[in-house]
Amino acid sequence: MGHEAQETDATAAVDFKEVQSTPRFQELRKRHRSFVFPMAIAFLLWYFAYVLLADYAVDFMSTKVWGNINVGLIMGLLQFVTTFAITGWYVSYSNRKLDPIAAEIRHEIEGHEFDKHGNQITGVEK
Amino acid sequence: MTLMVPAVNVADLKDTTLLNMGIFALFVAITMVIVVKASKNNKTAADYYAAGRSFTGSQNGTAIAGDYLSAASFLGITGAIAINGYDGFMYSIGFLVAWLVALLLVAELLRNTGKFTMADVLSFRLKQRPVRIAAAISTLVVCFFYLLAQMAGAGTLISLLLGISDWGGQALVIVVVGALMIMYVLIGGMKGTTWVQIIKAVLLIAGAAVMTLWVLAIFGFNLSALLGGAVETSGNPNLLNPGLQYGKTETSKIDFMSLALALVLGTAALPHVLMRFYTVPTAKEARKSVVWSIWLIGVFYLFTLVLGFGAAALVGADTIKAAPGGVNSAAPLLAFHLGGPLLLGFISAVAFATILAVVAGLTITAAASFAHDIYASVIAKGKADAATEVKVARRTVVVIGLLAIVGGIFANGQNVAFLVALAFAVAASANLPTIVYSLFWRKFTTQGAIWSMYGGLGSAIILIALSPVVSGAKTSMIPGANFAIFPLSNPGIVSIPLAFLLGWLGSVLDKKLEDTTKQAEMEVRSLTGVGAEKATDH
User: Fold this and answer.
1) What phi and psi, each to the nearest 5 degrees, are found at residue A66?
2) pLDDT for B374-402, tens place per residue?
3) In sequence order, what are the residues at sequence separation of 6 or more whose Cβ sits closer than 8 angstroms to the Cβ of residue B478?
């Protein structure tokens, strides 16, 4: 089935459970989740707070702040600002905290450090 | 500041028909040359479905913007802001914020674990056959709704842009659009489709930028003055406040929340968006793609804010509503007001290109899903070689193209924005819970996936069928009948939580345990990129 076809030579002999249990992989997983989960929850809460305000606090959102620009427009534009800011933040976090450790683990796996016992494969890979 | 009196005479528009057609023909000719050139290297399945995974993050990000900024968002949102003011603006915010779900939770992990389709990821560690079939069915349904919306939009657009107002003439244009799209996808595969999307995105964003600067210049680069102008022309001070469209009743308020939920959770579950992440060589490039697309899409929606209020101020809501094409005509009418026939011709050609590019992206996604998930994995049981699979995909392209043409002719005149919102709601209900669970929840099982996907898909479609969109109101598809027992026109607020619940319940109640080795493999591969599909060399 298509399943088997997905397994490239490089990973066929890898003991993924062993990789999964290494402290370094656990650290990578923790760093990834401790950023993306809170961030996802935060921006969803902020977005729905905005939607609820637009739905049920029309007077507040219609308050003029400067000329014809009201609170609602500023809040809407702030949604753009936070979206751009979270994007930039995530990119810099990934570059600093996720990519190096992920690359390290990937190189070790590709260097056969996690091959299953009894699998003597040398020179098979490119 | 002098405020201009609405000066657009709709009858003048017909004189520009030839010019519009000329500019559009030029676009078709140029893109066709590029598609033919790009198709020279289409040898393997990875070439045909995933463009050899050879696009850079910035190219793919631009193509994603080209894929995502459909006619519904360009014409639809500009028109919605021109008519409904602030409420139209809220639409665009949902469409943009949604990209954070794709960036944070989906794009890179999907690129690392999948090959060609959404089903690759969903069936990675679960039972292949049932999960793959469910994922393929929901891919086909979502693509079909989205496709219908674009084709119906093509018909509506024609009435305004080419001055063809009779049913037969519009049907002919839908046939032409469909035939062109089939050619692009057959010849160019994913590579050709991607280039069409990139060119279209550049033209669309550049055109919108010129118009935005123009409008701002008229109002002395003063946003407050522009808003004041819009209020003055419309005579309605509430144009700048929320609630003009969705604040009418308690039901419409809840309806807006339902729509917001579908928009924000639907984007990262649209199969044709997900498939784009396979066209880059690594997860890091997938991340860059999303970053590019967030900037391009965000800036574009800021343009539509100016264009929408600009159309309200300079063209006027009454003129827009009276024009053929109705609300959708706000952007073209504004172009005509600003730059005369030439700018209108350019914007019209861009709108056509938009439909063509989006339809091509949807078609290749649906064809890949059918050939790769249903034909190769289920019908041929994995024994089909790649060449046969691509052959099946090409035939599927023709079938889907024909279906889209017929569907488009019959859906002509239906509300475009509604059909698109529907596709988002179905995607968010049927796909997103399973994507999130299979990437992040260790105890997720096959039964959970099946319950969630079919439950989400089924409930979304049933609720739509029982909503005022289909029957019981003047604007319904079947205005004569009334079986609308569900009051909301968007099902998201019910069907999305239901699908999440079913995914959890199905997994908890599943007596069979899933393969923990596969779970470990998926988790390691998704985060480290080991064993991910590489770019093909030429």
Assistant:
1) -150, 115
2) 998 888 887 878 888 888 989 999 999 99
3) B470, B471
Domain extents in chain B: 50-532
pLDDT digits (tens, 9 = 90+) for B461-520: 999 889 888 887 777 777 777 888 888 888 999 999 999 999 999 999 988 888 889 999
**How far is it, in rounded angstroms, from Cα B128 to Cα B301?**
40
For A107, which residue in chain B has the nearest alpha carbon?
A: B530
Report ipTM (2 d.p.). 0.90
Token pair of A91 as six digits: 């990119």
Mean pLDDT of chain A: 84
Q: Which CATH number fits domain B50-532: 1.20.1730.10, 3.20.20.210, 1.10.10.10, 3.40.50.720?
A: 1.20.1730.10
**Residue B335: CB partners within 8 Å, gap ≥ 6?**
B207, B211, B343, B344, B346, B347
Distance of CA A74 to the CA centre of its chain: 28
Cβ within 8 Å, pair B253-A17? no
Query: Which of A19, A44, A62 has the CB atom closest to B264's CB atom?
Result: A44
DSSP chain A: -HHHHH--HHHHTB-HHHHHHSHHHHHHHHHHHHHHHHHHHHHHHHHHHHHHHHHH-HHHHT-EEETTEEHHHHHHHHHHHHHHHHHHHHHHHIIIIIHHHHHHHHHHHHTTTTBPTT----S---
Place of tokens 């089935």: A1
Percent of chain B with pLDDT over 90: 45
What pLDDT shows up at residue B167?
A: 78
Interface size between A and B, measured as CB pairs under 8 A? 183
CA dist B82 → A79, B168, B311, B333 (Å)? 21, 30, 6, 11
SS3 label, residue B478:
strand
Q: Is residue B445 classed as helix, strand or coil in its secondary structure? A: coil
pTM score of the predicted model: 0.90
Residue numbers in B near A80 (CB within 8 A): 93, 96, 298, 301-302
Q: What is the pLDDT of residue B356?
A: 85
Chain B CA closest to residue A12: B531
Report the amino acid identity of residue B120. D
